[in-house]
Structure formats: structure tokens, C-alpha cells
Design a protein that fits this description.
Layout: E1 23-26, E2 34-35, E3 42-49, E4 60-67, E5 70-71, E6 77-80, E7 82-87, E8 90-97, E9 111-117, E10 136-138, E11 140-141, E12 147-155, E13 164-173, E14 179-186, E15 192-200, E16 205-213, E17 223-226, E18 233-234, H1 245-254
């Protein structure tokens, strides 16, 4: 019948059992010094180490938002990473991370969780820091103009009808960017009584003093509005009296 080939010596077949998981490491500087203005263009580079090498395809970069200790389901997504090269047992991969690419807005209180997935030729999954079981917590500095009311004081607190009331309002920018805020003092009907504009740098405070007449008795309902914010800030003061109770008491004691 014949033979297909002739063997001149023994054939040695070496079988290597690879039971070691590949390890992933993030290149120094990745995810460092990030702010909220950069979250849609973050270069990411990792190195995967494996004694027998890993496939060039199949590396995935995953991320999600953690809000109040709970993962935001709609924020969870992933993108493929590109193979950049292999040196000995180390392979490098890269991608550009657009945190909001899934259409979910990243909020100030959110925490960014990032991890990577891949497997070697034996099917062993990635291990170590930066995997699904041990994701990376990425700190992002929130860059914004954040005007914050510090104090509102009305003097006198309990005015008499016709008396002039001074209202001092202080605003501070707690954010990292400068900006401006239009501030309006309004009555209960929404009529603007006074207004001003603050221009504040980072950590800067500004104050304004307004004077209005207590035009009626009872509750004046004075409120302060920042820009077009529908949440109005009430001015803390008591109801307007017809006359000063202390003066009335004094007159009674004198028999007047």
C-alpha cells in the first residue's frame, strides 16, 4: 500500500500545560491628573504579561459610573483595544476612552470604575489589579463654576411697617473655574425688587447689600434667585408688625 512519509528517527512531541493567568498593568500616568473637561478623550495604554504570549485581538476596555455606591446600569459599556506591539512576553494595547460615549452624563458625585478583559491562548483570564474582580477607581476632578450661597441676613429680623430693611447676601465660588451669576431679590409675587451680577474667581466670595421698605404687614415672602434657577432661596425674617412691640409695651407701662 505504500507510506506517505518515511520516519528516520523518533518523533518527540512536547506538550506544555499553561495554567498561569496573564497579568495586566496600566502604564504610568494613565488615569492620572484627570478632570471633568478631559473625560471624553482619555488615552489608555496597558501591558499584558504572559509567558506564552496572548492573542493580539480580543482585549476589551470596560467602564461604568458608580453613583451613591450603586452602578449606573446604562453607563456600563466597553470598547476594543488595539495591539501596539509585543516584546518577549509582554504585549501592549491602547485605546482612547470617551467616558460619555454611551450617552449617559457623568455627574460630579460619580466615581469612574475601569477594568480590562482578555485571555491567553489556553483560555486563562486576566488576573490582578484592573480586572473585573478588582477594577480601578479613577478619581476625576470636577471642573466647573459653582456659585454657592454662604449667608443671607435681614436687619432688623422683625421689622415694623414702613421700616427700612437691609438684606446682606454673600455668594462664594466653590468650583475650579471662574464665572458670573445674576442674583435677584424678589417678592412673593415674583416681582424683582433688586438685582446684581457677581463675577467670581475660584474660592472668591462676593457680597451685596440691598435696602427695601417693609411695605405691608405680615409675611413679605422675600426670596433670592440665582440666574434662572427655579429653586428660590427664602430670606429669613419674621412677619412685619404694625408697630414695635417693645415700644407698645413701654407706652403701656407709662400709661400712654
Amino acid at each position: 500500500t505504500g507510506t506517505v512519509f518515511e520516519v528516520m528517527g523518533p518523533i518527540v512531541i512536547e506538550i506544555v500545560l499553561d495554567s498561569q493567568s496573564p497579568t495586566v498593568s496600566v502604564e504610568p500616568g494613565t488615569f492620572s491628573n484627570l478632570d471633568s473637561l478631559q473625560i471624553n478623550n482619555i488615552p489608555v495604554q496597558i501591558t499584558i504579561q504572559d509567558d506564552f504570549g496572548v492573542p493580539k485581538e480580543g482585549v476589551e476596555l470596560h467602564w461604568c459610573y458608580v453613583r451613591g455606591g450603586v452602578v449606573v446600569p446604562t453607563s456600563r459599556t466597553s470598547i476594543p483595544m488595539q495591539h501596539e506591539g509585543t516584546s518577549d512576553t509582554a504585549s501592549s494595547f491602547s485605546a482612547v476612552l470617551d467616558v460619555e460615549s454611551q450617552g449617559v452624563e457623568f455627574e460630579k458625585s460619580d466615581r469612574l470604575s475601569v477594568w480590562f478583559t482578555h485571555s491567553d491562548r489556553a483560555g486563562n483570564l486576566l488576573s490582578g489589579q484592573g480586572t473585573e474582580l478588582s477594577p480601578l477607581d479613577v478619581y476625576i476632578v470636577w471642573m466647573a463654576y459653582e456659585p454657592t450661597p454662604i449667608s443671607i441676613e435681614a436687619t432688623p429680623y422683625r421689622p415694623v411697617l414702613g421700616e427700612m430693611v437691609t438684606i446682606e447676601f454673600t455668594l462664594e465660588n466653590l468650583g475650579f473655574l471662574n464665572g458670573s451669576t445674576d442674583v435677584a431679590l424678589m417678592d412673593a409675587d415674583g416681582l424683582v425688587l433688586e438685582n446684581t451680577t457677581f463675577f467670581l474667581e475660584q474660592d472668591e466670595q462676593g457680597s451685596v447689600v440691598w435696602t427695601v421698605e417693609a411695605w405691608t404687614t405680615g409675611r413679605l415672602g422675600l426670596v433670592i434667585q440665582l440666574d434662572d434657577d427655579p429653586l428660590l432661596i427664602p430670606v429669613p425674617m419674621a412677619d412685619v408688625l404694625v408697630e414695635d412691640l417693645d415700644d407698645k409695651s413701654s407706652k403701656s407701662e407709662l400709661g400712654l
